[in-house]
Amino acid sequence: MTGEGVNDAPALKKADIGIPVADSTDAASSAADLVLTEPGLSVIVGAVLTSRAIFQRMKNYTIYAVSITIRIVLGFMLLALIWVYDFPPFMVLIIAILNDGTIMTISQDCVKPSPTPDSWKLNEIFAAGIVIGTYLALVTVLFYWLADSTQFFETAFTSKKDYGKEDREAKWVLSQRTLQGVVSPEFEPKSRRPCMIAEQAMRRAEITRLSELHTLRGHVESVSKLKDLDINKIQGAHTV
């Protein structure tokens, strides 16, 4: 029902949808359900499309809330069961705060209004939320596995031109030690490691002593040759 005057107010109030046109009286506007602010009926189309877009955003928010809840619960449960991961309360609090921040963007979401009158279809909303939440949980577990157990991100996002050169050289050295029969320290028993360290220290000390002795003996021999001395007689009386 449309109207503009005082005499149209009872009819506008009795109608299912009362619409006063532009420049209508205050009595007609107060009794109506939908007030037009511009001349013509084209503004009704814009109002319907806007209301349907708002309803679509509300549906998107509900689907997001269901899916993100399932993702957090299922994803964290899989992480805790597979990797025995411990979640501190502070991290859970940060995740909850960040999720509330992403919900604010739904008000600016670009949605397509429904061509027909829409309603709350809870079965479809919960089904879509469960499917999306399960997918996000599995992707989260896969992402954590790639970051924790593989070198995918290290090789994909590195700035080095020859990434992994040190590892390849270490593997080559290990293979050469294996071919030559030298046992790698990684495979030696833990009880032998202190003994090996002590033996290496003794060898270094012996090498240092021999080098000093060799240097001193060479110096004595060179001095004896310059002075035409018999080094054997000197060694018989004195020990260097």
Automatic annotation (TrEMBL):
Cellular component terms (Gene Ontology): membrane
Secretion signal span: none
Recorded superkingdom: Eukaryota
UniProt cross-references to InterPro entries, sorted A to Z: ATPase_P-typ_TM_dom_sf, HAD-like_sf, HAD_sf, P_typ_ATPase
GO molecular function, one term: ATP hydrolysis activity
Ranges that cross the membrane: 61-85, 125-147
Compartments where located: Membrane
The keyword Cell membrane appears for this protein: no
UniProt KW keywords: Magnesium, Membrane, Transmembrane, Transmembrane helix
Keyword Transmembrane: yes
Protein name: Uncharacterized protein
